Amino acid sequence: MSAPTTDPAPSPTAAPPIALQEVTVRLGGETVLSGVTLDVRRGEFLALIGPSGGGKSTLLRVIAGLLRPRSGAVRVESVPALVFQDYRLLPWRSALRNVALPADLGTGGGLPPREALHLVGMDAYADYFPADLSGGMRARVALARALAQSGDVLLLDEPFAALDALVRERFNAELRHLHEKTGRTTVLVTHSIREAVWLADRVAVLRDGQIVEVLDTRGEGRVSAYTDGLEAHLRAVLGTGDSTRLRTATRARPSLSGLLPLAALALGLLGWHLAATRLDQPFLLPTPAAVWRELTGTFPALAAAFWVTARTALLGTLLGSVAGMLIGYPLAKFRALERFLSPFIIASQSTPIVILAPLLVSWLGFGFFPAVVVSSLSALYPIMISTLVGVREVDRTFHELFSSLRATPLQRLTRLELPGALPVMLGGLRLAASLALIGAVVWEFVDANQKGLGLAVQVAGTYQNKAAQFSAIALLIVFGVLIYAVITSLERGVMRRRGR
User: Fold this and answer.
1) 368-393 burial by CB neighbour count: b if 16+ within 10 A, else e?
2) What is the pLDDT of residue 45?
3) Ordered strands of the 18-27 beta sheet
4) What range(s) does the ABC transporter domain occupy (predicted)?
5) Which residue of 9, 72, 333, 334 has the fewest C-beta atoms within 10 A of its own C-beta?
């Protein structure tokens, strides 16, 4: 990227890209900013300093459009790119996809994402997730995301405050070089006087919500404190700060805990065998061997019944999940709607599906469709609640990030709320799949036309064939365990990517 031509002394008649006139902001009944008037010239680097609670970050949010002043005028030439102090990288997106977020939301137009990553020295880590990156690397990715956003205004809210002194020193040098190269109008909030004077063309001092002084610091910054005397000696001993360090999880020692479920299963089968042998009543409790002989001997018929039940349960899980999300999302967004519908929600969960089955027979008749309806109703509630909880648990700071990127409600739903709620929703899906299977079997007890495993259990019971009953029940258990294992595997993969 070629360096833009910059004019060290812009024309006084040129309209500044950032202009604030008598801006007043009140939060919680307290005046945070009072009559702030400030212009930031094109291509200028302005630093805001002042004591904590003086209104620096509030002023930055006013410029970013995240806060509306109570009075006064704010004019910003283009949508600003804001780098937050905590970086706010989406944990389910790689470094490259985090940088590409503005383009995904329609506010790109700055540097191409890969070029922005290259400019901050992170192109080799494009496919890494935030959980695998050090704090300094995440700061670089956040800065690259801002560079990929359209507009010529860059806002920095103490982005290096959490870094150690050596890494911060290196970042300051890189940020100064980056500003010279891109020429963006930049506003930096900082507590460091040295940092402000070294980096900025002007420094605005904010105290008690008012700008008390604006100093011209162009060319006044000194690095001699880093290169002379005792401080230089300490710097040489400590070395150069390196922010590009991956977070590698230490490998856990090999554990036998994974064998515990198999051990429990073996002990259960052994206990079952001993109990059945001692009882010696096949019509009450058959041995595992007798159940296995029945299963292998009638496998074609059981397999056909298995498919009937599995098809109903899988489709019920799918439809119930979709319905649960469609209901749970508006409940999460509008608490008044949740309170209004709460009697019906509680009543639906309190009514066993076996009670509703006869009613559905009279309304829908028999067949595959009502079977799927019963299975879907069984799966709906866990997904509805997990969607409600998951969407509400999405970090509010990410919502502020999306507000700064001018995201639409649909973009917020598809790129923030649903991905953010996914771990909770997968937990609900595990329960929903189990309940959908129960609903499918309940309907087979009611409708003899559904020749699934539920009917097989009933028929075997009529003929007092306990081995056949146990073999059908065993297939139901195997199906439930497989679905549970698949969903759990997906959940662990999602959590692993997020470093949890």
Assistant:
1) eebbbbbbbbbbbbbbbbbbbbbbee
2) 92
3) 30-40, 18-27, 71-76
4) 18-233
5) 9
- In Å, what is the CA distance from 25 to each residue of 32, 36, 66, 74, 156? 6, 9, 12, 12, 20
Reading the block at residue 287, the tokens are 């041995």
d(CA 139, CA 147): 12
- In the chain, CATH 1.10.3720.10 sits at 276-497
- pTM greater than the 0.85 cutoff: no
CA 484 to CA 209: how far, in whole Å? 56
How many residues would you count in the chain? 500
Report which of residues 489 and 226 the model is more confident about.
489
Q: Mention every residue, 6+ apart, whose C-beta is less than 8 A from residue 50.
A: 56, 205, 206, 207
Q: Which residues, 6+ apart, have CB-to-CB distance to 21 below 8 Å?
A: 37, 72, 73, 74
Neighbours of 437 (CB within 10 A): 27
Q: What is the DSSP string of 300-343?
A: HHHHHHHHHHHHHHHHHHHHHHHHHHHHHHHHHH-HHHHHHHHH
Start-end of CATH 3.40.50.300 domains in the chain? 18-221
Which value, in Å, is the radius of gyration of the alpha carbons in the chain?
32
Q: For position 170, what pLDDT does the model report?
A: 76
Interatomic CA distance for residues 6 and 183, integer angstroms: 7
Which token pair is 132? 């695998």
Q: How confident is the model at residue 130 (pLDDT cuts 50, 70, 90)?
A: very high
Q: How far is CA 299 from CA 275, 302, 490, in A?
A: 26, 5, 31
Residue 263 makes CB contacts below 8 A (sequence gap 6+) with: none
Say whether pLDDT at 420 is over 80. yes
Tell me which H or E stretch contains 167. Answer: helix 165-182
Beta strands in 67-194 (DSSP E): 71-76, 81-83, 153-157, 185-189
CATH top-level class of 18-221: alpha beta
Average pLDDT over residues 172-183: 84
DSSP 211: E
241 phi/psi in degrees, rounded to 5: -65, 135
User: Closest Cα to residue 179, out of 169, 166, 189, 188?
Assistant: 188
Determine the Cα–Cα distance for residues 470 and 401; give it in Å rounded to an integer.
Answer: 55
**Could you tell me the fold of the domain covering 276-497?**
MetI-like fold (1.10.3720)
Could you tell me the pLDDT band of residue 8, with boundaries at 50, 70 and 90? very low
Q: Look-up: residue for tokens 């001018």? A: 406
Task: Encode pLDDT of 259-270 as tens digits.
Answer: 788 888 889 889
Please say whether the beta carbons of 52 and 193 come within 8 A.
no
| Coil/strand/helix, residue 478 | helix
Residue 277 is classified by DSSP as H
